[in-house]
Amino acid sequence: MVDIKSASDFAFRKFKTGSIERDDPFGYIAQVSAYVEAEGKDTGYLLAMNKVSGELVLFELDELTLINASGRIKDVKKLVKNSSMPDFCYQPEPEGKSGNMKLARDCVYCSYKWTCFPDTRVFKYQEGFKYLTTVMKDPKVPDITDSMRG
């Protein structure tokens, strides 16, 4: 069972170094685990391609790395049925020395960021967007929150 992924240069390093086992914010290991379990196999692979360089890496997932996919599905179903909000996956982090706090990197990509942190404001810096959950000192860059909430 092989799942093929394209990845940014930054994300590709996780596949190449094996750190994807510890830092898998998009759930690739859970996804492959479900495929492996459904096919009755005991090993799966992630074939990752670096979008920048075209480099390829094949990352093996064995019984020590794969998760119990059917058990995970049961747990998620319980969470969905529960009317209370689960604990945050990540806490906001300091942004410089101003006292401002920003979303953790993985929260920026999450479709629930506005549910978890409804007062988040988005600022457009030269190097990209910053999602500030607490603003003690207004940055001297455009606040584009309204256009980002969609």
Features:
150 residues; 2 domains; four-stranded antiparallel beta sheet; three-stranded mixed beta sheet; 6 helices; 31% helix; 23% strand; globular
Structural write-up:
With 150 residues, the protein is α+β, with helices and mostly antiparallel strands. The chain has 2 domains: 2-81, no CATH class; 93-149, no CATH class. The protein has 6 helices and 7 strands. The protein has helices spanning 9-17, 28-39, 69-81, 105-108, 113-116, 145-149; strands at 2-7, 44-50, 56-61, 93-94, 101-102, 121-125, 128-134. Strands 4-5-7-6 form a 4-stranded antiparallel β-sheet.
- Record field, number of beta strands: 7
Q: Biggest sheet, in brief?
A: 4 strands, antiparallel
How are strands sequenced across the largest beta sheet? 4-5-7-6
Q: What is the CA-atom radius of gyration, in angstroms?
A: 19 Å
What oligomerization state is this entry in?
single chain
Proportion of residues in extended strands: 15-25%
Distance N to C terminus:
38 Å
Q: What is the overall number of helices?
A: 6
Q: Shape from CA axes?
A: globular
Question: Which residue ranges are poorly predicted, with pLDDT under 50 across at least 5 consecutive positions?
Answer: none
Domain unit count:
2
SSE order, one letter for each helix or strand = EHHEEHEEHHEEH
Query: What structural category arises from helix and sheet content?
Result: alpha+beta
Return the average pLDDT rounded to an integer: 93
